[in-house]
Amino acid sequence: MIGRKRLGLLAAVAAALGSDPIAAAADDQWPPVAAVSLYGDPNRPDISGLWMGTAMGIPGQGVVSNSGKSADGRPPSYWSPWPLPYTTAYRKIYDERVASAKKGVQLGDISSKCLPFGLPTMVSSMNYPQEIVQTPGQVTFFEFGTFPIVVWTDGRSHPKGLAPSYNGHSIGYWQGRTLVVDTVGIMPTTSLDSHRDAHSGKLHLKWTVSRVAPDVLHTQITLYDDEAFTEPVTMTNIAHRKTDAKWALLDDQSCFENNQDVPPPDKASGFIKF
């Protein structure tokens, strides 16, 4: 006979597995009870490999990237809603950045100073290939020219007193065939995308990664920031598997080797302007 406690647990697992991944990620209990039974499951979905999504675009203006297009020619992705639903204070920041860009000054673009892009840009604008590696207790996203993103799937929670960083702190779990991720602690100096769109230190990302076909990966992102936005912002980035060796661009390189925005004033050794 099954005891009442076990029946209750089974009911909770069934309910959680049938719920929406993003909604489950917002639950107070972390990880959701359903995730416990999935840790270490050898049959969990395989999202490992080399993938490339699309660059971010501005409606009516196309892709914003170094080359002005997605690396493999596919159309861009967009935030929704657009224009971003900024609060009055952050709309002012956005307007100042747009005005400065027209004058050739890239305000808010920390990548022009060869600082890491930050997680928001890395998951929203995938103009270059990324490699996903699955190991026990974590899923790691290696991206071109910046720090990897580590998603801890071992049941830990976000640490107390977390110091903000470029990539923040990410925890996740498998719900069916979907990796559900919760990210906090991102430095407000990072941008949301390659447009230099701003956010506050309260930014909270909830995102999912699903392999919807053998060679197709969907990343769905929702941004919560009640200081910068009047409502949540969402997007979906569709990535395709890349098997040709020419896409394996995850080699060692330095931002300074092709930094055409802010060259070192002292012409530092190693700086190459292509």
Can you put this structure into words, describing what you see?
The protein is α+β, with helices and mostly antiparallel strands and 274 residues long. The chain is 16% helix and 24% strand. It has a 9-stranded mixed barrel. Strands 2-3 form a two-stranded antiparallel sheet. A hairpin with a 2-residue loop joins strand 7 and strand 8. The protein is globular, with a radius of gyration of 20 Å. Mean pLDDT is 79; it is low at 1-27, 36-40 and 266-274.
Q: Alpha-carbon distance between the termini?
A: 72 Å
Structural category:
alpha+beta
How many runs of DSSP E, i.e. beta strands?
Answer: 11
Largest sheet: number of strands, sense, barrel closure: 9 strands, mixed, barrel
Tally the helices: what do you get?
5
Lateral strand order in the biggest sheet: 1-4-5-6-7-8-9-10-11
The portion of residues forming beta strands comes to 15-25%
Order of helices and strands: HHHEEEHHEEEEEEEE
Overall pLDDT confidence: 79
Low-pLDDT runs: 1-27, 36-40, 266-274
Shape: globular
Structural Rg? 20 Å
What is the helical fraction, as a range of percent?
10-25%
